[in-house]
C-alpha cells in the first residue's frame, strides 16, 4: 500500500471538495469574458534567436496569447495567458474544422502544427491546426525552477548510497520550485489545462474541435473529453496513458517493456559487432552494458566535461530507447560504445547522442522543460512522501528488472512537492468515438495502457502496431503505412474502422 503523510492526504481531500464546489457555484457566466475574447493573431518569432517562432513564421503559422483565469475557482481574480499557434487550412473549400494538437511530454506544443500537417497527408490541408503550450510549459505561465538538470528522472543506482543521492537530488529540485513559483504551482494541473483548452475552443468560435494527442497528450485529451462531453469531433490518441494509473510514479510499470526493448537492441548490436564492438550475442552485449553501469558505480565515467555515475548511465539507456529503427538504434549503440570506452579510462568527447543526453541530464540548459513537466505531474496527483516506500520498491523491481528497475520505482520531486493537488485525478469513463493507437513494444506509455484507455472510451477503435518497440508510432513519424492509412483516412472522412485493426 502506498503511504501518504496523513496531513497531505487530508489537504488533498479538503482542497478537492472546495474547488469542486467553487466550480459548481460560479456557473458558466463567470467565464464569459474569456470565452468571448477577441484573439489577436501575430507573428510567432519573439526575436532573432527564437528558432521555434521563426520556423512557425516560415510555415505560415500565426500566434496569439489567450487570456484565462489563473484560478478557475475565482475567475474574477488574477489572469494569465496561454500561448497558441494556428496553421490555417489551405483547402478552404473542404475545410473540416479546427484540430488542437499535443505531442506529449508534458511539454510545449505550439511548434507542432506544421509537423502534424505533414503527417496527415491530404487531410492536413483541411484543418486549422492549433498548437497550445499547456500551462507551465513553453510560453504559457512558464515554470522554470532553476534546476541543474533538464529532467527529474534518475536511477536509484546500485547501492543505498546512490539512492540517497537521488533523494537529495529530488528534494533539492522541489525546494527550488517552491522558492520560485509558490504562487502558480497550486494552479498547474491537467484539469486546468483542459479548461484552458475549452476557453480556446470557445474563443475560436468553434462548437466542437478535433484533437490529435500523443503520450501525455492522450491523457489531456481524455480528461478534456470527460470534463467537456460533446465538444470533441475527430480524435486520435497515440500511445495512450492509462488514466487510472496517471500519477507522479508514471514510469513504474514500464520496466519490463524497456528490458525487452534493450534485449531486442542487443540482438541488433550483436549483428553489427564489427562496427560497435559490444559483443557478438545478446548476452555479450548486455554484459557490456552491465559492466558500464558497474564501472560508473565505482567511479563516475568521464565524458568530455561530464561525470556520469550509476544514477545517470541507466537513464542514458532509457532516454535513447524509444524507437527500434536503425537510426535510433545506432545512436544508442554509439552512446554505449562511448560509455564503454570511458569505463576503460579512455578519453571520450561529449559529442553526438551521448553528449547531448548528458548535457540534458547534467546541466541546467533545459531546466524549463523538466520544471514544467514536474509541475503538471505533481499538480495532478499526490506522491508517497516517505523515501523508504521508494527504496522498498526499487529493491523489489531490480530483482526482476536489473537495468531499469532503479528508474521506474525511484523517487522524484513530487515526494517533496510544496503544494498538494487541489482536485482529485479525473476518473475517465465516457463515450468518445475516436482512434487509439498503440505499439506492442512501447517503452514509455506501455501497450496495456493504450488498451486500458480504449476500454474506458466507448466508441473508440484500437489500431495496434504489432512487434514494434516504438513510442507514438503515428506522431513520431515511424512510417508504418497501415497505421498512417487508418489514422489519416479517419481524419479525412470521419469514419472509424468497423472494428479494431492490427498492423503487422
The value of Rg in angstroms is 23 Å
Mean pLDDT: 94
In the sheet with the most strands, the strands line up as: 1-2-4-3-5-6-9-10-11
N- and C-termini, Cα separation: 39 Å
Number of strands: 11
The major sheet is characterized as: 9 strands, mixed
Tally of discrete structural domains = 1
Amount of helix = 40-55%
Counted by DSSP, the helix tally is 18
Corresponding CATH architecture: 3-Layer(aba) Sandwich
CATH superfamily: Alpha/Beta hydrolase fold, catalytic domain
Shape: globular
Poorly predicted regions are 1-28
What is the top-level CATH class?
Answer: Alpha Beta
What structural class do helix, strand and pairing data support? Answer: alpha/beta
EC number: 3.4.14.-
InterPro entries: AB_hydrolase_1, AB_hydrolase_fold, Pept_S33_TAP-like_C, Serine_prot/Carboxylest_S33
Protein name: Tripeptidyl aminopeptidase
Domain Peptidase S33 tripeptidyl aminopeptidase-like C-terminal: 409-503
Amino acid at each position: 500500500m502506498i503511504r501518504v503523510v496523513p496531513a497531505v492526504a487530508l489537504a488533498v481531500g479538503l482542497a478537492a471538495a472546495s474547488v469542486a464546489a467553487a466550480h459548481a457555484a460560479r456557473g458558466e457566466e463567470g467565464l464569459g469574458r474569456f470565452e468571448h475574447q477577441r484573439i489577436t493573431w501575430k507573428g510567432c518569432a519573439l526575436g532573432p534567436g527564437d528558432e521555434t517562432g521563426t520556423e512557425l513564421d516560415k510555415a505560415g503559422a500565426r500566434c496569439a496569447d489567450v487570456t484565462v483565469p489563473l484560478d478557475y475557482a475565482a475567475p474574477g481574480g488574477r489572469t494569465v495567458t496561454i500561448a497558441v499557434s494556428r496553421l490555417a487550412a489551405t483547402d478552404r473549400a473542404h475545410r473540416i474544422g479546427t484540430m488542437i494538437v499535443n505531442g506529449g511530454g508534458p511539454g510545449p506544443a505550439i511548434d507542432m502544427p506544421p509537423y502534424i500537417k505533414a503527417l496527415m497527408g491530404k487531410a492536413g490541408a483541411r484543418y486549422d491546426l492549433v498548437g497550445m503550450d499547456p500551462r507551465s510549459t513553453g510560453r504559457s505561465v512558464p515554470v522554470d525552477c532553476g534546476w541543474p538538470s533538464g529532467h527529474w528522472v534518475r536511477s536509484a543506482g546500485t547501492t543505498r548510497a546512490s539512492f540517497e543521492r537521488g533523494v537529495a537530488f529530488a528534494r533539492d529540485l522541489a525546494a527550488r520550485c517552491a522558492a520560485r513559483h509558490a504562487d502558480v504551482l497550486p494552479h498547474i494541473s491537467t484539469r486546468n489545462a483542459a479548461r484552458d483548452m475549452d476557453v480556446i475552443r470557445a474563443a475560436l468560435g468553434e462548437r466542437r474541435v478535433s484533437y490529435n494527442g500523443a503520450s501525455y497528450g492522450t491523457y489531456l485529451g481524455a480528461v478534456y473529453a470527460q470534463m467537456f462531453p460533446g465538444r470533441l469531433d475527430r480524435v486520435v490518441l497515440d500511445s495512450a496513458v492509462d488514466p487510472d494509473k496517471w500519477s507522479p510514479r508514471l514510469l513504474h510499470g514500464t520496466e519490463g517493456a524497456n528490458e525487452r526493448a534493450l534485449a531486442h537492441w542487443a540482438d541488433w548490436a550483436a549483428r553489427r559487432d564489427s562496427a560497435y564492438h559490444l559483443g557478438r550475442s545478446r548476452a555479450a552485449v548486455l554484459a557490456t552494458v552491465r559492466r558500464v553501469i558497474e564501472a560508473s558505480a565505482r567511479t563516475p565515467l568521464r565524458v568530455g566535461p561530464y561525470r556520469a555515475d550509476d544514477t545517470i548511465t541507466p537513464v542514458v539507456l532509457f532516454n535513447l530507447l524509444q524507437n527500434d529503427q536503425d537510426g535510433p538504434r545506432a545512436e544508442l549503440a554509439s552512446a554505449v560504445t562511448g560509455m564503454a570506452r570511458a569505463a576503460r579510462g579512455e578519453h571520450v568527447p561529449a559529442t553526438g547522442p551521448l553528449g547531448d543526453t548528458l548535457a540534458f541530464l547534467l546541466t541546467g540548459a533545459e531546466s524549463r522543460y523538466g520544471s514544467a513537466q514536474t509541475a503538471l505531474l505533481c499538480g495532478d496527483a499526490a506522491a508517497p512522501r516517505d523515501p523508504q516506500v521508494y527504496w522498498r520498491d526499487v529493491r523489489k523491481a531490480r530483482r526482476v528488472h536489473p537495468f531499469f528497475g532503479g528508474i521506474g520505482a525511484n523517487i522524484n520531486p513530487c515526494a517533496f512537492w510544496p503544494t498538494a493537488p487541489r482536485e482529485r485525478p479525473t476518473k475517465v469513463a465516457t463515450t468518445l468515438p475516436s482512434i487509439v493507437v498503440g505499439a506492442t513494444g512501447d517503452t514509455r506509455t506501455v501497450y496495456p495502457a493504450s488498451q486500458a484507455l480504449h476500454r474506458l472510451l466507448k466508441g473508440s477503435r484500437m489500431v495496434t502496431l504489432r512487434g514494434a518497440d516504438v513510442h507514438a508510432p503515428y506522431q513520431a513519424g515511424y512510417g508504418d503505412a497501415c497505421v498512417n492509412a487508418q489514422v489519416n483516412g479517419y481524419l479525412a472522412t470521419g469514419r472509424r474502422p468497423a472494428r479494431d485493426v492490427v498492423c503487422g
